[in-house]
Queue: 3 jobs
Job 1
Amino acid sequence: MHLPELPLSTPSLLFPAISLLMLAYTNRFLTLANVVRGLHANWQSTQEPMLLKQIQNLRRRIRIIKHMQTLGVLSLMFCVVSMTFLFFSHQTGGQITFGISLLLMLGSLAFTLVEIQMSGTALDLQLRDVKCREE
């Protein structure tokens, strides 16, 4: 099977997208790190079980964000390797590494979807706790 020629400009289209995703991932990570610090300080003084559940949820979410970031960085690296192959007229190598780059980006986005769902669940837990205290 012969694949159509992949121009050098195609992998370069991923650069802005990957850069913006990495910035968003880093912002999520830093925000969660600050929330964890605040919850940890609060938990040390109150020992409230709900806070411990929230901290455990945040720990899992931070682990997922680290996977998101890792796959995003690997995607960018394979994209660069693909462009290098294409620059030196090695179509097959460029196509294979670009395909790997796309799969890594897909994995990163899948982890993002999981983390977003966990974030919604965490907020729901918080709101449920507030509702229980009102009643």
Job 2
Amino acid sequence: MSNRPRILLATWPFGTTGSRPLDLLRETGWELIANPHSRRLKPVEVAELIGDVDAVIAGTEPYTAEALAGAQRLRVIARVGIGLDSVDLDYCRQRGVAVTYTPDAPSQAVAELTVGNMIALLRHVHESDTSVREGVWNRLMGLLVGEATIGILGMGRIGGRVVDLLAPFGARILACDTDPEVRRRRQWPAVEWVDEARLLKESDVVSLHIPLNRANRGYLSAERLEQMKPGALLINTSRGPVVDEAALTRALTTRRLGGAALDVFENEPYEGPLARLDHVILTAHIGASARGSRYLMELGAAEDCVRVLNGEPPAHDALADMEWAE
């Protein structure tokens, strides 16, 4: 076996939105190992492939303690994206494995998908599409964005961009964040800061932009769903497990909620009862799947991977941002 460092390109696809990320890795002269399955890796496949590599360009596939136990050469997991719930950060810290991520690159793409889904829900685009295909021709009456009260739960990188994109519509925007520093770092004149209970009670649309960590798993519980305004709409482009999926299914089936747009799920690919509801938009975790954002994500991951293997600090050190693991 070669003594050259070996880099596993676990995420797939990689290098299709621009050549620079792949060229950067090739220019090192290190051995690149492609994902042999051309899809998201399963847990057992992760364990099989990382056993003798020095670095991983990672997607959303799981890097559990069990999978990482046999990766004695591993020095860095460079995540293409922002979510770190798929990586056992505590184990990586104990083992001295660096973890990097690209927190800014996907933000605009996710924010745009959020606003696009918001408009689709408010105007019943998905339901009207179905009616036309079935020959019913339902001209459903919706709301202007400016008529709605929109609640943003989580005002970090993505939540803040959603607010910026909504500014021209003139909607009433309620915001809530568990981190008081978020409110101090930047001012949004059109935003009304409220507590969680008021946001849920008054919002016609609730959009989730919170990280998946121990505190937020199951955050939107049956109890919180019950607090939402009757007929309200839910958008989740953050992480699937922050929502109690069974409770949400009940709320949508009984029409306690008026609809939802979900890009993320407890288990992916999603197979479940939400797919049978005509007032729910389901997308296959495509929040960051825009060419410009994907390119920046891959480039940032490649650059930090090279930095760590060269003995330099990464630009975005996930282990230094431990709120993800708390």
Job 3
Amino acid sequence: MTSVCRRWLSEEAPARRLAVVRILVGAYAVVFIILRSFHWLDTARLPLRRFQPVGVLAWLDAPLSAGLVGALAVIAFALAVAFAMGWRFAIVAPAFALLLLVLTTHGNSWGQVLHTENLLVLHVIILAFSPADHAYAVGRATRADPAPSHDYGWALRVMTLVVVVAYVIAGLAKLRNGGMEWLTGDVLRNQVAHDNLLKIQLGDFHSPVGAWLVQFGWLFPPMAIASVLVELGAPVVLLGRRWRTAWVSAAWAFHVGVLAIMAILFSYQLAGVAFACMLPVERLADRVTAWRSRASTSSARTARRPGPG
């Protein structure tokens, strides 16, 4: 297993793959900031007694003002766009990573820690200190496609390890908190019932599918076992491309199931961006390039075609 890990960690990757991951993560971050800013502003207006600083902001005695949070969100949006474009990446990327960390931490310092944001923030931090702007970057001189290198692979490997660790921790937490009863499906069934009932009582959006399924107890043991297998099985991505692809498919399906029965949206995972670091996503850019080339050729032929008469 040690040799497998060493070989996996030393894998080379093309600059285009790292750049496409940067674009995908950056584009997701742009949308995330737009949508999340409303929550950040709302929490900043809560009563002071609700403020319980955590993480890198644990030293704060008082929350940031709503005006300052709004200004930081605007700056973060601009930096996210520049991050995705790869513009002045060496300066923009670390600044964006720090600001995103501050904003998400401040938003989580009001009594509810949203772990769904962790992967995005950690991925941005890792990319910020990588050469992710060596391809498809605005303002950078065009050069020949760099040869695949460990310099472009290490960030993708670290991002993958972060995903693996996050899922393994989630699986262990299920077994620690639910014990063997989790595997029997009782804990999961009760959790689905409680979550949907609470949302109904609060007038929040709930899952009618989950509320209907709780009457069928026999469904929950296989679902509970499958969820633990997906989470604890995350390290199989170290074994090679086929294992990696199979696990990504299973993890994505797992989150579809969570959305269907509990109305809990893990958008970073469902969008596929959380898993982009594991896949040959440069093929997306190759297809776009090929399509543009064909479109350009077709336009040129049309322009050269003689008109009537």
